[in-house]
Amino acid sequence: MEFPSEFTTKMKDLLGSDYEAWQNCYNEPRLYGLRVNTNKISPDEFSKIAPFELKRIAWIPNGFYYDGDNISPAKHPYYYAGLYYLQEPSAMTPANTLMVSKGEKVLDLCAAPGGKSTEVGAALKGEGVLVANDISASRCRALLKNIELSGIGNSCILCETPEKLAMTFPEYFDKILLDAPCSGEGMFRKEPKMIGAWKEHGPDYFCKIQKGLILKAAEMLIPGGLLVYSTCTFDRKENEEVIDYLLEERPEFEVKEINYYEGYSKGIASDNCKHPDELRKTIRLFPHKLRGEGHFIALLKKEKIADASVNPGKCDENHHGNIGNKKNADNFKIPQEVIEFFEGWGEEFINDVNRVILKGNHLLLLPENINTAGLRALRTGLLLGECKKGRFEPSQALAMAIKKDRYPNCLNFSADDPRVIRYLKGETLEMNTNISKMIEPGTDSGETVNGNLGSCANWKLICVDSYPLGFAKETNGLLKNKYLAGWRML
Q: Which residues of the chain have pLDDT under 70?
């Protein structure tokens, strides 16, 4: 691979005696990875049903390598069931480093297309809130799809500037992930076309953006909270120097040690950095030292209050409470058709009028303790479905959020059943009157029907090996396909 001379000169200075080994690794093929969605299945469970050969990624508990030259995991029904996300191995590291716990409030500031957000959302285990933001409206659409595909309902998908977010959420988040836009030097092997982009916008362009972003992230973190800053580039201006800048501007921050794995390298401070000892706690991932591409990661903790005028964790309840709480409590009544649908399978959250709102025809289940009013939001919470002239139609997002075997009216197919592909392509299916019971994974198709279904009786949840794919509406022995058009298999 041929690099610009300016870039190779810089890398020789950065790597010293390691330069030749680094250069030689670019003659090796790129690596492909997938990360198991622990919101739906454990890594061990997935290993048992995986339809292709996998090898563990040493430093990512739910990460695997696959042979991307010979298989296409994105074309398998398990991908459409949200069981895994395709992600470069090193790119899995930042979200894993953030150590998100159940019930926290977490911000992914530059989130699209959603690889890191989906990992963070899975770690929340259905509680707390994930705010996934990206300033690009077009990239936000891919972000929304990936979060819904992963079954993460306690999320807000925003398309806002960092400045507007910082004004709205001062010292609000427990954890923040800032995977900053960068010159992309670490991805040259994976995406050779990025070399051309680097020539147009290099480190000098991006480091100014990164310094602005990290200061805004700092404003939104609670005292005691953790911030992960990451890039996929090698340049010290975009990495260690950005962290050094934060430590100068916000002395309440300190760099925390990151659990060390074989192949990690310590941060490399520039001569002009004022905190070299702190910067050595950051880590670098080099493609000649581990089986992945280039990355930089820093874990930071906010130790004290920067500004005494801000009361951390005591923001106005009307500002950060659920959207329209008082209005809902006083005036909102959940439509009867919605009640009948959810009573059919015993879901009790629909009775919480403080978390359920009707926005136009869209019925939404909101995350707790957050208000996105005044912000550009693609989605706030879980889209349950639409109310249409006295009837309720459940959404694709709801189907993906239903846990395995939870819905009482399922039509289950094995992964190799051709009807699965037909469904994913949007085709109408015929009901099999001989189907009588729920199947075990890997067996022939089967059906489960439990209890008094109410209006659920007409809505089949189509599953692959018991993992939901989407809904179909049963009418006169036919299943009208309700799989979301924009998600269909081509």
A: 304-331, 348-351, 432-452
DSSP 248-274: HH-TTEEEEP----TTEEE----TT-S
Would you say how long the chain is, in residues? 490
Residue 356: in which H helix or E strand, if any? strand 356-359
128 contacts 106 by C-beta, under 8 angstroms: yes
Q: Phi/psi zone of residue 433: left (φ > 0), alpha (ψ -120 to 50 degrees), beta?
A: alpha
Between the CA of residue 4 and those of 10, 124, 190, what are the distances in Å?
10, 43, 17
Tell me the pLDDT tens digit for each residue of 287-315: 999 999 999 999 999 996 645 444 444 34
Distance CA 460, CA 448 (A): 10
Distance CA 11, CA 18 (A): 10
In whole angstroms, what is the distance from residue 300 CA to residue 218 CA?
10
Q: Look at the chain and report how many structural domains it folds into.
A: 2
CATH number at residue 287: 3.40.50.150
Q: Are residues 220 and 125 in the same domain?
A: yes
Task: Tell me the pTM.
Answer: 0.92
- The DSSP line for 362-396 is EEEEPPSS---TTS-EEEESEEEEEEETTEEEE-H
In the chain, the amino acid numbered 308 is A
Catalytic residue positions, numbered: 232
Residue 249 lies in a domain: yes
Looking at residue 439, the DSSP 8-state letter turns out to be P
406: left (phi over 0), alpha (psi -120 to 50) or beta: alpha
435 and 373 belong to one structural domain: no
What pLDDT does 447 receive? 60
Q: Are 178 and 97 in contact (CB under 8 A)?
A: no
Strand partners, 36: 84
- Residue-level pLDDT at 334: 85
Residues 457 and 390 in one domain: no
Give the DSSP letter of residue 51: S
Containing domain of residue 425, as a range?
Answer: 402-487
Contact 253, 247 (CB under 8 A): yes
Distance CA 448, CA 463 (A): 11
pLDDT at res. 324: 40
Query: Considering 373, 401, 429, which residue would you say is the last residue of a domain?
Result: 401
Residues 374 and 431 occupy one common structural domain: no
| C-alpha to C-alpha distance for 316 and 319, rounded to whole angstroms | 5
